[in-house]
Amino acid sequence: MSFEPKIVGFMCNWCAYRGADLAGTSRMKCAPNVRTVRVMCSGRVDPQLVVKALQLGADGVLILGCHPGDCHYAEGNYKAARRIALLKKMLAQFGIEDERVRLDWVSASEGDRFKKIVNEITEQVRVLGPLSRNGAD
Amino acid sequence: MSEIPIEIDGREVKAEEGMTILEAAKSVGIDIPTLCYHPALSPFGACRLCSVEIISRGRSRIVTSCNYPVEDGLIVNTKSPDVITIRRMLTELMLARCPNVKVIQDLAREYGVEKPRFKLADEKCILCGLCARICEERIGVSAINFVGRGVDRKVETPFQVTLDIDLDMCLACGACAFVCPTGAIKLEDITKKKPIPILSEFDMGLKARAPVYIPFPQAVPNVPVIDREKCAHFTTDKCKICEEFCTPKAINFEQEDETIEVEVGSIILATGYDTFDPSVITQYGYGKFDNVITGLQFERLCNATGPTGGNIRLKDGSVPKSMALVHCVGSRDKNYHEYCSRVCCMYALKHSHLIKEKTSAEVHQIFTDIRCFGKDYEDFYQRLVHEEINFVRGKVQHITSTNGKEGTQERLIISVEDPDNGKATQVVADMVVLCTAIETQQDAGKVAQTFSISQKADGFFLERHPKLDPVATMTDGVYVVGCCQGPKDIPDTVSQASAAAAQVLALITKGKVELEAGTAVIDEALCSGCQTCNTLCPYTAITFDEEKKVSNINEALCKGCGVCVAACPSGAISGRHFTTEQLVAELEGMLA
């Protein structure tokens, strides 16, 4: 059987979650690999949660927020951008490939963009293969 | 101001100090004929037509009433035999100079002058000087004035050369031609400049308007406004003629735009729409051919208060024999807007109906799909089908003109491609109405940012939910109605507006606002007092308690974004409903 990556998607309540909803109501075909965790803002995504997800068995983590300037809470997405940038430096030191964690922006009207991002990360992680956790799996 | 009692034609008149006899007479409705007088200009006494007989200190004299100031006890006779004789003589002289000028002919008839006894000339100018005075006193330019003396006196441009040497001071405002009582002044004799008409915004540029104008017939408040950019006063610092004529003294040049700040609890955005500029589709010839117009322009053209009084006319004034209405201009088109503009089918049908009612022209509807989705709209469509309207299915490729063939009326040839079989047909019409797409206002992005609401990819404001919450937005207390939310017709806009009003009223009646329940809380026992969270909060909900050395969250201000939760190094802050434990449990569940 081919490898089906498990990807955790943290989505902000106002843009990305609505964009995902739109993709769904528009009957767009998305890879089923992204499992959604709704948060109020991408700024709520504690880097520890990302690490936790990877630790618990996720092969990739997707964080989606509002476009810069469109954050429902004014600037939460900027904070997410800084945190994830730092986190990625750390993950690289752990030998975790850059493509496994992705932060991107999807507005509530961008169902097709949501679909595109989800399909992209799924394919990228599929190519990378399962995340090795030093004999954990 | 002191009152000065005088007597005019046996009537007691109370004049004000500084008034002239003419003004005093006018104020009580006594008519004195004038030619060179204008209430907004200084009196000149050139035509002498306003001559009256006065008795001052027992002596009788003839004076010009336009520049003779009133004085105490003055007795004025405006119609004494001497005055009439003088006016008849003046009229006779003027008639000899200008036998073909209508005002003079009318005067001559009034004073019983049939044929002047003097040698006839064929002048138009009566040297009243109104043109020179208005140019100098009110426009502040002095582009024309009198030159020469005696019989050589005439109105001219300085040294009669400015026309040739390009030292033209004239603004081409046309005030001189406007005040000229005889039609002697022609703008083209004074300047090579062409007056640029100010096109009426309301009449979609089909008609010119004045710099002082009432924006449209149902304007609220229904009062005139001054166009600062075009008004002569604001460009030359002179004029102010309107101030002179406004009896209630309502004109105020000092008025400035004001920004008024109001505190409100809810906001309804109804910022409306723009229409697609069809000149972008160059092959449709909008802006190139006079008789290719937009739907809104046609709306003005067939409106009773429009530029033609509701008569459907071509640019040259003739009645069209054939009309074509082109649907989906800029809408349902991959190159411009992909969405359907929704209102065009119905107004195109309405226009066809009006054309049929007002003219005998044949009507062609060039459409890709007819969408009569609303209540009773299908009935209207069926009715039109029976009104001998030619429905042509297809997309317009290009519009060309037959112009050039001399003596023949210009016609427009519309080339239509059938989307089913790619075959091209031609429709010939005198006028083409382009049903242009509704699009968002130019500054919709700015408005969206101001109210932190989202726009769809096509620019229209995004509602909270397309079906379940179609007037609210993601920002609490901000509602969207009308075409700023998406193209829609009047019934839909009215329903949406009523819904928004009801939602706002519901908020007001409740008197309180429900707060976000998912706020963040600080566990004081865990807080280390590092104050990392204090600067993060965009709502300044977090403050530092100096006494306890811990941070506090004001729950009324907290919106529950959770930025602080993610940032707290000691894990003292948790976000209700989104606690770390809850999220980890979620992760465990989904990754199990």
Q: Which key phrases capture this entry?
A:
heterodimer, A: 137 residues, alpha/beta, Rossmann fold, 4 helices, 4 strands, 17% strand, globular, B: 592 residues, 5-stranded mixed sheet, 25 strands, 18% strand, extended
* DSSP strand content of chain A: 15-25%
CA-atom Rg of chain B in angstroms: 36 Å
As a whole number of angstroms, the C-alpha radius of gyration of chain A is 14 Å
The helix content of chain A, as a percent range, equals 40-55%
Number of strands of chain A: 4
Strand arrangement across the biggest beta sheet of chain A: 2-1-3-4
Question: How many E-type strands of chain B?
Answer: 25
The greatest interface between two protein chains, and residues involved on each side, is:
A-B, 34 and 32 residues
CATH C-level name of chain A: Alpha Beta
Secondary-structure element order of chain A, N to C: EHEHEHEH
Give the N-terminus to C-terminus distance of chain B in angstroms.
Answer: 98 Å
Note the overall shape of chain B. Answer: extended
Task: Name the beta content range of chain B.
Answer: 15-25%
Number of domains of chain A: 1
Q: How is the biggest beta sheet of chain B arranged?
A: 5 strands, mixed
- Quick one: CATH superfamily of chain A? Lumazine/riboflavin synthase
From the spread of the alpha carbons, the general shape of chain A counts as globular
What is the terminal-to-terminal distance of chain A? Answer: 17 Å
Q: Strand order across the biggest sheet of chain B?
A: 2-1-5-3-4
Give helix % range of chain B: 10-25%
Number of helices of chain A: 4
Q: Could you explain the architecture of this structure?
A:
The complex is a heterodimer of chains A (137) and B (592). Helix content of chain A is 40%, strand content 17%. Chain A contains 4 helices and 4 strands; from the N terminus they run E-H-E-H-E-H-E-H. Chain A has helices spanning 16-25, 47-55, 76-93, 111-128; strands at 7-12, 34-39, 60-65, 101-105. In chain A, helix 1 packs across helix 4. The mean pLDDT of chain A is 92. Chain B has a 5-stranded mixed beta sheet with strand order 2-1-5-3-4, with helices on both faces. The longest helix of chain B has 21 residues, at 490-510. The A-B interface holds A 6, 8, 14-15, 35, 37, 39-41, 43-49, 52-53, 56-58, 69-70, 72-76, 79, 83, 107-110 and B 449, 452, 454-457, 462, 474-475, 518, 536, 538-539, 559-563, 565-567, 575, 578, 580, 583-584, 586-588, 590-592.
